[in-house]
Structures are given as structure tokens and as C-alpha cells.
Specification:
By secondary structure, the protein is of the alpha+beta class. The chain folds into four domains: about 120 residues, conserved putative lor/sdh protein from methanococcus maripaludis s2 fold, CATH 2.40.420; about 55 residues, no CATH class; about 120 residues; about 80 residues, Beta Barrel (Elongation Factor Tu (Ef-tu), domain 3). The protein has four helices and 26 strands. The strands form seven sheets. Strands 2-14-17-16-15-18 form a six-stranded antiparallel beta barrel.
Length: about 450
Amino acid sequence: MPDLPAGPFRETALKRMFRTIVATLVFVTVLPVCVRANGSWVRTFRTDFSLELVESGEVFAVQSRVVPAPREWRSNLQITRMVSEGSMVVAGDTLATFDAAFLDAEIQKVRNQLETLEADLRKRKAEQGAQRVALNNAVTSAHYALEQSELEIEKLEHESESRRMQAELSLKKAHVSLTEATTKLASQITLDSLATQAAHLKIANAKSRLEEEQERLLGMTLTAPISGLVIYGTRDDGGEGRRKLRVGDEVSAGGTVLEIPNLEAMEVRFSVHEVDREKLSLGMPINVSLVAYPENELRATVTHIGRLAESPEEESQVRQFQVRAALDTSFDLLRPELSARLGVVLERREDVVVLPLVAVYERDGDAVVFPRERWPEPFIVEIEAYNDMLAVTVEPLEEDWELAVQPPTDDLQVQPWGYRDFHTQAARWEELPSPAVVVEDVVVPPATEVEVQ
């Protein structure tokens, strides 16, 4: 203790020092046993309990037609127009178009070639016609020459032998000329026919190519194969996930551009924990609430329960199984890709005491609660059945029992009970049933009190 001067000042200083030491001792004494003085409380209450499995899912069409991009030799095709997503279309309606400038140029090139070939054929036919006339005239002339030679021989019947021999020679020459003219005409006809066939073949090939290019051009416009709802395809957004396609994007040949689901048959798909899979059965009814339209509750029926677990996420030991349920399609706004909240009623119990799961914790493998009347001691409960908010115990609890939402101290080493985090997700305060309304915050005395003399 410091050396203080005698007198009133020394006495006052000593009193202050003593009070400081006492206050410090009290603080040190109370701190280890002090618990949370203020907190929220919930009540147990009596009601009809539904053992309901609650999951999140998404709406899908049972049948859907994918509309792919044209299967072009080009690596990418640019979208120039798309019908609005969510539009209702009928079979044959235009859905999207692609940049076809390269095809327009190719089509014009083929048309020019076709016109040239057809002009060449017309010219060739005109030339062949002129040649045919000349050759026919030559044959006719040869016939006349032959007839004239035959008449000459008849007239020289009584002439000298030399003149008759000369006339016979002229007759032979006329025969040769006629044969040559006839042969030349026949040969020319054959050549003209072959040339015409070759020209027609080239024209046919050009027309076929033109039709192919025009078909390719038509393929650059996508039309609806069936009536239904338009849903855009997606593309990789450069490492930032996937996004919907839009005008100006390039897609690979054959890649999905749009999808048209058949709205007459819809289903909701969701995943369940392996613990819950065995609780489901085919034909089981499901209550479906669409996130976008929560005021409209739909009905569904389980049609498929996966036998193999889905691929788990990295470092996750949770095994999930896919479930599908056929939806009632009477709701006009039902669309694919809508998020849904599903409730599967597994069991119903009438007039039982239940406790909100936000008040249940796990300690050393036991489920515990912290009742006000036992504060701050934990009370072990054995959970028999539970849904996303409430639980029923093996030994019924007292009605209107007030339970703490938070444990009295962090030193108890407790954690939220169950494999779901009821304290942050499923059991939101605003969704608690009215009998379990939050009790007003109150001051709870600490477990140990220290009196200062």
C-alpha cells in the first residue's frame, strides 16, 4: 500500500481504495456464473400435429421440346432476333433468327452461275439448230445428186461405154456423199444430245445447290415445333456462371437456343435427405406453395423416388435423392423454373403438446431445452417426431411451458439440434403458430448471487 499522509485525506483515500477492491472482487466472483439475463421465450402448446417434410423444389414440364441452333459448318452463329421469353407461341411461329449475310452472298453467287449455265444452254441449242439445218440440207442435196446420177445412167443406155462408165462413177460418188451427209447428221445429233445432257446436268446441280442454300437460309430462322411457352437457353458467362441468351450472342451449331415445354403436364422436382427418403412412397400427396404466388396452394402426387443418391457437393457427406411429383395444372400461371416450397404430410396426431424447435439444442448427444422454471439448468427431452417448426416428445411436456430460445451461456457447449438448422432457416419467428408466440423479454436472475457487505 502506498505511504499516504495522515489526516482526512488519508482516510478518504483508503475508503475509496477499499470500495474499488470490493467491487473488483464482486465482479470477479459473479462473472463466471452469470448467465444471459435477457432473452426470447416460446411456449409449449396443445394442437393437432402434422409430421410434415418441408423441402424446396422447382417446377418442370414433364415433356419439353428443345429448339437447337442450325447445324451449320460455321463454328458460331449470331442471334439477330428472339421472341420474348415467356411468350406463348403456336406451332410454326417464328422464334429466333440468325445472321445469314454469308448465305445471302452464297445464294446470289449460285444464282449467277445458274443464269450463266441456262444462257449457255440456250446459245448452244441455237447453234445446234443452225448446224442441224445445214446438215439436213446437205443430206437432201446428196439425195438430189444421187437421183440425178441415176437418171443420167438411164439416158446413156445407148451411149458409148466410156460415157456410161463416167455416169456410173458419178452415181457412186453421189451414194458416198449421201452416206457421209447422213452419217454426219446422225453424229451431230448424238453430239448435240450429249452436250445438251451435260448442260442440263450442270443446271440441275446448280439448282440443287441453290435449293440447299435456300434451305440453309430458311434454317437460320427458328420456328416453334409445338405450341407452348418460350424459355431461353443459357450460355457460359465467362467464369461468372451461366446466363440467359440474348440478341447479339453467338451460339455453337446445334446448341440449345430455346425450349418449349408442354404446359399440359407439369411436375415439381426436389431432393430429400437420405433420412427422409424412406418416409416417402409413390402416390403420396404433397402440398405445393409457389414462391412467386404464395397465396395459391397447389396439389401434387409423388410419381418418382430416386434409387441412387445425387452427386454430393465437394466436401459434403450429405446424401440427397431426387423426388418428382405430378402437379395439378389447373393454376393458369404455372410455369417451368418457378421455385416452390413443398410440404409432405407423413403423419397426423390430434391434440398433443408440441414444442417449437427453435428452443431445442443438443448437448452430449441429448436433446435439451431450457425451461424458465428450471433456469438455467437444461432439461433432457426425447424427440419422437418433428416437422420444420414443431416437435413431439416421447414423454409429453407440460402445456404453456416457457422455453428459452438461447442457452443461458456459451460455456454449456450446446449446438442446434438435428441435421437441419431450425434456428436460422425453417423456423422463422413470423411463421410460429400463434399459441407459441414469443414471450416478452424478461430479466432472469443469475444462477448465483453474491452479496457485498
